[in-house]
Amino acid sequence: KNQVEQSPQSLIILEGKNCTLQCNYTVSPFSNLRWYKQDTGRGPVSLTIMTFSENTKSNGRYTATLDADTKQSSLHITASQLSDSASYICVVRPRSGNNRKLIWGLGTSLAVNP
Amino acid sequence: DGGITQSPKYLFRKEGQNVTLSCEQNLNHDAMYWYRQDPGQGLRLIYYSQIVNDFQKGDIAEGYSVSREKKESFPLTVTSAQKNPTAFYLCASTGLGDKVTGELFFGEGSRLTVL
């Protein structure tokens, strides 16, 4: 069964610190893996999209990595800010599917404290 | 600015009533989607439409209906047949230019509460 599992479920860090969020998936083969940021009560916003042939992609202080062999992805946040407090969702699109077939993780809830 | 507009932001409904959530986009996107988000669960697809006057059921379509009469608009009706309608509803769209990656652009969501 295609699954996307994220860890930790929640995380609290101090402002200015770095953190890394994990995503393990069983979807195979897959077309792309995405990370979204969702602020409380708002819609998700795309941070990165990586195809199966890419292994890293950055968007400002956000850097996503992908290891297709181990079926793992991570999202690294550098020099965290209070505005980084949000839920971060990992999403995998199977190669044979379209957006109809997206597999969504449950998200990691990040709290950045002053 | 281009984007997706959902309304209302908050909606309260009595049991047995139908309600319609609005979703409008000015991104010239062909495909539009409705998702439902519940605490502790990943986003679940309700309905999607890839072209005007055509739409397909998603994973949890029971108790919902949609229409796609215009490219810009994809309203969702939550009917009285939906047993647990209290949730956060998200509308999204994808353009032809995103055909490969399928990047989704989301609205701000509508929170429906059944009293």
Write the layout of secondary structure elements.
The complex is a heterodimer of chains A (114) and B (115).
Chain A: E1 4-7, E2 10-14, E3 19-25, E4 30-38, E5 45-51, E6 56-59, E7 62-67, E8 72-77, E9 86-94, E10 103-104, E11 108-113
Chain B: E1 4-7, E2 10-13, E3 19-25, E4 31-37, E5 44-51, E6 54-57, E7 64-66, E8 76-78, E9 87-94, E10 105-106, E11 110-114
Separation of termini of chain B? 35 Å
Low-confidence runs of chain A (pLDDT<50, min 5 residues)? Answer: none
The secondary-structure class of chain A comes to mainly beta
Give, in order, the helices and strands of chain B.
EEEEEEEEEEE
Give the N-terminus to C-terminus distance of chain A in angstroms.
41 Å
Uncertain segments of chain B of ≥5 residues (pLDDT<50)?
none
Helical fraction of chain A equals: under 10%
What's the average pLDDT of chain B? 91
Structure class of chain B: mainly beta
Structure description:
The complex is a heterodimer of chains A (114) and B (115). With 114 residues, chain A is an all-beta fold. Chain A is built from no helices and 11 strands. Chain A has strands at 4-7, 10-14, 19-25, 30-38, 45-51, 56-59, 62-67, 72-77, 86-94, 103-104, 108-113. Chain A is globular, with a radius of gyration of 14 Å. The model of chain A has no long low-confidence stretch (mean pLDDT 94). By secondary structure, chain B is an all-beta fold. Helices cover 0% and strands 48% of the residues of chain B. Chain B contains no helices and 11 strands. In chain B, the strands form 2 sheets. In chain B, strands 2, 4, 5, 6, 9, 10 and 11 form a 7-stranded mixed sheet that branches. Chain B has a 4-stranded antiparallel sheet with strand order 1-3-8-7, with no helix packed on it. In chain B, strand 5 (44-51) and strand 6 form a beta hairpin. The mean pLDDT of chain B is 91. At the A-B interface, strand 4, strand 5 and strand 10 of A face strand 5, strand 9 and strand 10 of B.
